[in-house]
Amino acid sequence: MRLAGLAGVLFGWAPDTFWNATPAELGALVAAVAGDAPDALGGGELARLMEAFPDG
Fold first, then answer.
1. Local structure of residue 21 (DSSP, 8 states)
2. Using CA atoms, how far apart are residues 1 and 17, in angstroms rounded to an integer?
3. Statement: residue 10 has pLDDT above 70
């Protein structure tokens, strides 16, 4: 229900538009609003950062 409300506020969707939308349609709108997200860290990059910045 919360997601349906957010779709109404963010995208101007009426409840029936939300409930008739496919996950791909909703995902495309969310991705468009979110913009370009950075890529996740790879295992090697994470290990390098943990070594460079140990927590003690």
1. S
2. 13
3. yes
DSSP letter (8 states) at residue 56: -
Task: For residue 29, give every residue at least 6 positions away whose Cβ sits within 8 Å of its Cβ, in sequence order, or none.
Answer: 7, 10, 11
**Which ranges of 1-56 would DSSP assign to H, the alpha helix?**
2-11, 15-20, 23-34, 43-52
Three-state SS at 55? coil
- Segments making up each domain of the chain, as ranges: 2-52
Q: Select from 6, 1, 5 the least CA-distant residue to 34.
A: 6
Is residue 56's pLDDT more than 70? no
10 close to 33: Cβ distance less than 8 angstroms: yes
| pLDDT tens for each residue of 30-50 | 888 887 777 778 888 888 988
User: Which amino acid type is present at position 39?
Assistant: D
